From TrEMBL:
Top enzyme category: transferase
A GO term for molecular function: protein histidine kinase activity
Species for this entry: Leptospira semungkisensis
EC number in record: 2.7.13.3
Keywords of this entry: ATP-binding, Kinase, Membrane, Nucleotide-binding, Phosphoprotein, Transferase, Transmembrane, Transmembrane helix
Highest taxon above the source species: Bacteria
Domain Histidine kinase stretches: 115-307
Record-given protein name: histidine kinase
Annotated TM spans: 6-23, 30-49, 69-85
Catalytic reaction list: ATP + protein L-histidine = ADP + protein N-phospho-L-histidine
SUPFAM superfamilies, alphabetized: ATPase domain of HSP90 chaperone/DNA topoisomerase II/histidine kinase (SSF55874)
Amino acid sequence: MNPVALMNAIAFVLYSSSIFLLLRSIRRHLILPGPAIFAVASLSTGVFLSISNFLEHSGISDLLDDYEGFARDLFVMFLLIFLYVDSMHREQVKREDDQKRIQNELREKAFLLTEIHHRVNNNLQIVSGLLSLQRESQGTGKISDALRIAQNRILSIAKIHQIIYDSQNLLQIGVDSILGSVIQNLTTAYQNESTRILVKSEMDKNIKLDPERAMPLGLILNELVTNSLKHAYCDGEAGEISVRLEQDAGNIILSVSDSGKGLPSAEAEDTGIGMKLVESLVQQIRGRVKVDSKEGTSIRIILPKEGVSSLIFFRP
């Protein structure tokens, strides 16, 4: 037998075997039908060329010679399509694997975030409980009052932390929910001593802040309302504390006012402790403070929606 004819016969067997294996793999769902079909088409043109060359070099017939050029073109075309479809399939598989990996990482990070949240919340509750026990052991007096103020600060941080964690959007937090939680915590803490003091609030529910500014603003309100509850009115005196949250074109404004006896004198021992903390927190959130104590006390925290603003403290 002519060596060329023998080689084409071997090629025919190899092409046919490859087609058989591909079809069986498709039937068993071992490979995707898309790329496999074009591979089968490409191999089929190879079978045709092998048969044509075998017949020609064996001297049997040359009727298929006229179609060999077309068959070669088909072979190249199907091969290129196969390579393209196969590369697309590999890219899709890689993308799906990447998506699964990202989802697994997100689930892991969500779990870790949940654990961190619970640990932080539990630790804050433990610290609050310890302060409560220490305060009870002190009875009454300045130390007991200081411990209660510290406990209220811890509770406010814990509740603000809880609100931020439970928020659907961690980048923009509804400020009204945070401030409302602070007010509720303080009215509960001082309900026995300030039963005749009413805390009224009016808040724009559309105001949202990022957590880095929302939490300090909640702590600022905690200090301002605590000062009013403790110092604005004499024991047993009726009064009202007004909390207002609003916004204009460029600023968010938090106002806390009362009609009490005003700020302590400059000679008082505890003057400025709460306000120094307020100033520090306001500076942290790039805002400014305005204080008016001509008739009672009115404090306005002006926080820019965007940009940076320096701290300005006004005292008449």
